[in-house]
Structures are given as structure tokens and as C-alpha cells.
Prior knowledge:
Layout: H1 5-23, E1 36-40, E2 44-51, E3 60-61, E4 66-70, E5 74-79, E6 85-90, E7 95-98, E8 103-108, E9 114-121, E10 144-149, E11 153-159, E12 175-181, E13 183-187, E14 194-198, E15 203-206, E16 216-220, E17 224-230
Antiparallel strand pairs: 1-2, 2-9, 3-8, 4-7, 4-9, 5-6, 5-8, 10-11, 11-17, 12-15, 12-17, 13-14, 13-16
Amino acid sequence: MRLNISIMLPLAALFFFSSSALAQKYTAPFPRNGVGKALENDYFVIWDVTFESGKSSGMHQLPLDQVYVFLTEGPVKFTRPDGTWNIEQEKLGAVIYQSKGTVEAEEGAGDQPVRAMIVQLKNAVPPKRAIVPGIPDKLPREGTVKLFETGRVIIWDYTWKTGMKTPLHLHYHIDAAVYLVGGKTIITTDHPPSTNNWKVGQIVEGTEPLKAPHQEAQLEGEPRAISITLK
């Protein structure tokens, strides 16, 4: 069968441009106005996001898997491309995992803005660190709850309870921790001991291995953090 090239070429061009238009229909979620980049390394990009009522992020498509960690309470509206939507009442420490390719728009849905850290997971493969017999990993430990686990990450919620002291440990996994509640901890194996003063929204990147095991203890308040730990 002969094909009429004079007809097929315009049709092919139309198909190409239509496909291109569909492929470019959605923008990336970041960067955008009102959002600050809090941290970037080989494994994570972390954004400080505030959801305000009536201010939509615009429909976007996720280029990477990502994890929301909510720092304040309040309702957030998620809208899908077909126009359907739902409102989630977020709480302090609430965590959402979304897969690469998800398409949605977001906005606050209450009287007060809602703040979250959004952790994008880059595609870098984390290294496998040698396990030292008798020396445990940083997590889990006393005061720790595993929220959930995927093929890529484990999400831990941990609190420094009053009087708590960690066992001697190493960091075998790469992680990013977001602090929800401030306070002070002390590293007791340093000479002299060193103090960490944690703030709400502070991020700790655990990308470098420790040279030697160490211990930490609660000093003031009961600091609480969410750890996104790469497997």
C-alpha cells in the first residue's frame, strides 16, 4: 500500500508537537516563589515550603521521589490533574512519601500557613559501609519509632527523652534529619564534650562516616527529629 507522504508529514508533525506539548504540560515543583532551598548534597535536595491559603503551587510533576516533613499543624489541599482534590489535616511530625512522576498542585486550606520541609531523593546510590562488630547503628535506639519503610528509605521519628544517653555507635547509613522540637544534646565522648543546640526546622545531613564510635546524651528539653535514612 502506498502512503501519501504529503498528508503523512503534516500528521506526523502534528503528532510530534502534540506529544511534546503533553510532555511539557507540567513544570517541576521547585524552585518556585516563596520556597527556599535549605540544603543540597549528592543524595538530597531539601526545600523549606510554606503552604498558604489560596496560593496554589500550580500543577507540577515530581522529577524525584520526595518526603514531606511537617513542622506545623494545619490543613493542606492536594489537587489532581482531573480536578479532584482532598484536604489533609497535617500534624507536627506528619510525613508523606510521594513517588517520582506524581502530578498535583498544593495549597494551604486554613487560616494559618502550614510549614514543611520537602526532601527530594536524588538517584545516587548510597555506599555500603563496613559494620564494626559490637557497635550498633545510630538508629534505632531508645525513643525511636519507625514510621514506615520503602524500597529506598526508612523513616524514623526519634525523641531525646529526659536523661537519655545513646549507646556507643557509628553511622552506617546516609540520612537527613529534620528537627521538629528544639533543645540541647551533648556528645560525651569528645574531649572536651561538645554541645548541639537544635532549632525547629534545623537539618542535619549524615553523609560522612564517623571516624570513631561516639555517644550522645539529652541535655535540655526533649529534642525531636524525623530521619530520612537511605537503605
